[in-house]
Amino acid sequence: MTAPPAITVLAGHSWTAALQHPFFQHALLAGTAVAAAAGLTGWFLVLRAQVFTGDALSHVAFTGALAALAMGVDPRIGLYAATIAVALLLGALGRRGRADDVAIGSVFSWFLGLGAFFLTLYTTSRSAGNGGAGVSVLFGSIFGLSASQTLTAALVGLGICAAVVAVARPLLFASVDEAVAAARGVPVRLLGFAFLAIAGACAAEATQAVGALLVLGLLAAPAGAAQRLTTRPYSGLALSAGLAVAEMWTGLGLSYAIPRMPPSFAVLATATAVYAATYLPAVRRVRPAYRGA
């Protein structure tokens, strides 16, 4: 009996076949960099209780991309400009560079209204020439990346990873004990702004892979699973990035094997299943006690 495609895609010969296709090579390269960046950034979002910020930025990404499309420019310009600018705005409205729920809720609702406006403007003026662009913003188009888009996504993803690693130590200190960190001379407010800018760039980049509606899942699920599996900060960071990359690969493989399954759904379904598995008693028992980094 022949095994189902969803099973055989994980075998070596199936991966070899998939890698013969340029679209899959592009998706794998870009997806790896994006997932690693989302895993590292998401770990700090969860640690700092700023997951709602990630949710808000995903909707800002949608609005920014639609604004760019409505004006006839590259949607990536709108993605990065909107998410980074709003992330910094949220930090300015919050305390010590941290966005609070009131500021997030106010800006979130305003940008949802702007999103509705730009969606109407786009669909009535430009959708005839590029009808699939709006759907790609919502749900991602990782299998449709060109070689140049793939290179850009990979470089931006690696840049985000490098930025997170560069600020990881002081940001960890400021996240765990903000008052003591400030007393020791750590620039807490500046770090808060820097991290929000990184989170904004990461949300914009991840939108191209899984879409604006599902960005939060890629930011939160691997990080949440990692924090449930280990209390060691640097091990948790590495585990979060590793889980995100593994889930990206698995999702792409499943989507290749089952063409009817969108890659964004496959990636997020895998991430959700992994997070749910951390609640199993057998998995929770292997969590090590905290002994530092």
Distance between the termini: 49 Å
Largest β sheet strand count, sense and barrel closure: none
Low-confidence parts:
1-9, 289-293
Overall 3D shape? globular
Could you please say which CATH topology applies here? Answer: ABC transporter involved in vitamin B12 uptake, BtuC
Order of helices and strands: HHHHHHHHHHHHHH
Could you say how many structural domains there are in total?
A: 1
Number of strands: 0
- Helical content stands at over 70%
Rg calc: 19 Å
Average predicted confidence as pLDDT: 82
Word description of this protein:
Belongs to the ABC-3 integral membrane protein family. The chain has helices at residues 5-8, 12-18, 22-47, 51-70, 75-93, 101-125, 133-139, 147-176, 178-183, 188-210, 215-229, 233-257, 263-277, 281-284. The chain has a single domain, classed as ABC transporter involved in vitamin B12 uptake, BtuC (Orthogonal Bundle). It has 293 residues and is mainly alpha-helical. Helix 4 (51-70) packs across helix 10 (188-210), helix 10 packs across helix 11 and helix 12 packs across helix 13.
Concise structural overview:
The protein is mainly α. It is built from 14 helices and no strands.
Looking at this protein, list some descriptive labels.
293 residues; transport; ABC_TroCD; disordered N terminus; transmembrane helix; ABC_BtuC-like; ABC transporter involved in vitamin B12 uptake, BtuC; transmembrane; disordered C terminus; single chain; 77% helix; mainly alpha; globular
